[in-house]
């Protein structure tokens, strides 16, 4: 090995001054060159390598960028270093962004300026919010927590007493699993605003923002005009959700509106229009219409990727989450009861997945372009189950697009972007038509009654339960006639909502972030 010349102190100081004059900012990192396969001087086994401060990604290609103290790197050693890993990585020093220089910060008058304490607080809040959202996702609907924001917004709604309505008179089927009405569409008459006035239905004016609670003669909460959150970003959520549905509508292959199980490229001319002349696709978990076990609704294979993208859209999921929060707030006893039953179903069959972070196991996208329904019951929904209906599109809600409750003899102004909750299996409902140049879509969430019957009968059909477990079958059959009276107890009395919240959602669950 050729002899090497020792660098004197004066030479080292001169080199440091030259580096300072050239405005080269470096940091000193101790490196064990023996680990890198280097050749060291006998009198010293360690050296200091100056690594440029503005990069940890690797060693520079130019060997002159490195300066040593104590030893001089030989040409062959330099070549070996250039082909090895970064010394910072060998020393397990994390790769971090270069420190920001003070003069790069926005001035205090700039709206983007934030002090160090503000940056730290912002980071802590972001981490805390992410942790709460993650815990809420993992907890499912049973982990719902009443937020302080929801309590403030919904604490003083407008209450409308329905003097001509009593929930006990709105009968469901025996067992309260489905609607009493066998026919889905009860009338083929299109209910215009003029027709509603002719029938002397009461028109309810609504701006779509204020919360309106409808109670029956016993002060039970029967329907809620929820409105929308007091959030400036909600308008963007509605805009993006509408955009996502329109984009999906252009790509989807729609089935016949009546024969949902038979996919068609064009609507079948031999079938009637069902609930109305519009395009719709239902997704999610259900049981009924010939199926023997709970499962996800069958879809056309050509639509799977499009529907997956639609249900994964964060704005659509926010619509679903808001409706879920409103359901838990105004129907806490029903929410808790149904959530526990669905948890049993999901725990027994892990292949069944929740469509959204929501209690509702199923949803329907009514793409329109003019979603106007005929008078009908949702006959397959649970008798005391609630449906959430969010109106979307561009139309004049004062002249069309009303939701009509024929059972209650009401028709309600229903602005775009607002949400309504009501028991669709026991209240006959429809929509008033809109102008030809207008568009109306809707996003509906529902719960199939067959799922809850499946759980009650021991995770099997009624016929199988009669053969395999006669004792359980007889016990359930004896209570079928009084099932609706028991189901009515799941509707909260308006003045007892706060007590129901405390019973259904314990204090440890009293903080929920949407």
- Helix/sheet category: alpha+beta
Strand content: 15-25%
Regarding CATH, which class of the largest domain? Alpha Beta
> Termini distance?
70 Å
Radius of gyration: 33 Å
Mean pLDDT: 76
How many structural domains can be distinguished in the coordinates? 3
Counting DSSP E segments of at least 2 residues, the number of strands comes to 16
Q: At the third CATH level, what is the topology name of the largest domain?
A: Double-stranded beta-helix
Residues in helix, % = 25-40%
Task: Tell me about the largest β-sheet.
Answer: 9 strands, mixed
How are the strands of the biggest sheet laid out side by side?
4-6-7-14-11-16-10-8-9
Name the poorly predicted regions.
23-94, 261-272, 509-514
Overall shape: it is globular
**Tally of alpha and pi helices:** 15
CATH architecture verdict of the largest domain: 4-Layer Sandwich
Question: What topology does this entry show?
Answer:
Elements: H1 9-21, E1 26-31, E2 47-52, E3 68-69, H2 75-82, H3 87-90, H4 116-139, H5 148-154, E4 158-161, H6 193-198, E5 202-204, E6 212-215, E7 221-227, H7 234-251, E8 279-286, E9 295-296, H8 304-311, H9 314-330, H10 332-348, E10 362-368, E11 387-394, E12 403-405, E13 410-412, E14 419-422, E15 429-431, E16 439-446, H11 449-456, H12 462-468, H13 470-478, H14 483-488, H15 497-504
Helix pairs in contact: 7-9, 9-10, 10-11, 12-13
Task: Provide structural commentary.
- The protein is an alpha+beta fold and 514 residues long.
- The protein folds into three domains: 9-90, no CATH class; 102-132, no CATH class; 140-404 and 434-500, 4-Layer Sandwich (Double-stranded beta-helix), CATH 3.60.130.
- The chain has 15 helices and 16 strands.
- The chain has a nine-stranded mixed sheet. A four-stranded mixed sheet has the order 5-13-12-15. A three-stranded antiparallel sheet has the order 1-2-3, with no helix packed on it.
- α7 (234-251) packs across α9 and α10 crosses α11 (449-456).
- Residues 14-23, 92-113 have a biased composition (Basic and acidic residues).
- Residues 1-23, 90-122 are annotated as: Disordered.
């Amino acid at each position: 090995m050729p002899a090497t010349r020792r660098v004197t102190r004066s030479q080292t100081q001169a080199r440091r001054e030259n580096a300072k004059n050239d405005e080269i900012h470096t940091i000193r990192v101790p490196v064990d060159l023996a680990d890198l396969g280097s050749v060291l001087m006998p009198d010293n086994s360690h050296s200091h390598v100056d690594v440029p401060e503005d990069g940890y990604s690797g060693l520079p290609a130019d060997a002159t960028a490195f300066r040593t103290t104590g030893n001089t790197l030989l040409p062959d050693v330099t070549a070996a270093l250039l082909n090895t890993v970064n010394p910072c990585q060998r020393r397990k020093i994390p790769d971090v962004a270069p420190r920001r220089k003070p003069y790069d910060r926005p001035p205090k008058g700039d709206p983007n300026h934030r002090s160090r304490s503000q940056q730290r607080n912002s980071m802590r809040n972001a981490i805390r919010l992410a942790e709460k959202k993650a815990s809420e996702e993992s907890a499912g609907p049973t982990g719902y927590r009443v937020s302080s924001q929801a309590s403030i917004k919904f604490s003083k709604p407008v209450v409308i007493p329905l003097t001509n309505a009593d929930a006990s008179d709105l009968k469901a089927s025996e067992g309260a699993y489905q609607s009493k009405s066998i026919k889905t569409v009860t009338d083929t008459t299109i209910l215009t605003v003029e027709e509603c006035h002719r029938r002397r239905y009461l028109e309810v004016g609504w701006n779509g923002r204020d919360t309106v609670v409808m109670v029956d003669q016993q002060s039970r909460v029967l329907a809620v005009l929820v409105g929308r959150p007091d959030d400036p970003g909600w308008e963007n959520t509605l805009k993006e959700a509408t955009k996502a549905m329109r984009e999906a509508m252009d790509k989807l292959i729609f089935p016949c509106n009546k024969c949902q199980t038979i996919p068609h490229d064009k609507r079948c001319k031999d079938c009637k229009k069902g609930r109305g002349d519009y395009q719709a696709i239902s997704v999610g978990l259900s049981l009924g219409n010939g199926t023997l076990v709970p499962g996800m609704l069958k879809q056309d294979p050509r639509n799977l990727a499009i529907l997956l993208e639609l249900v994964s859209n964060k704005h659509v999921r926010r619509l679903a989450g808001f409706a879920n929060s409103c359901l838990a707030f105004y129907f806490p006893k029903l929410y808790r009861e149904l959530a526990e039953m669905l948890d049993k179903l999901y725990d027994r069959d892990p292949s069944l997945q929740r469509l959204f972070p929501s209690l509702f196991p199923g949803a329907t996208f009514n793409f329109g372009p003019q979603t106007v329904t005929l008078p009908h019951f949702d006959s397959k929904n649970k008798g005391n189950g609630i449906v959430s209906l969010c109106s979307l599109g561009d139309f004049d809600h004062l002249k069309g697009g009303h939701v009509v409750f024929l059972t209650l003899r009401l028709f309600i102004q229903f602005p775009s972007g607002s949400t309504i909750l009501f028991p669709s299996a026991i209240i006959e409902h429809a929509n008033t038509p809109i102008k030809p140049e207008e568009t109306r879509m809707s996003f509906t969430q529902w719960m199939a009654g067959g799922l809850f019957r499946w759980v009650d009968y021991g995770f099997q059909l009624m016929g199988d339960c009669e053969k395999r477990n006669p004792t359980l079958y007889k016990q359930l059959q004896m209570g079928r006639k009084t099932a609706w009276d028991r189901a009515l107890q799941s509707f909260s009395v308006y003045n007892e909502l706060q007590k129901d919240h405390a019973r259904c959602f314990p204090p440890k669950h009293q903080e929920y972030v949407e």
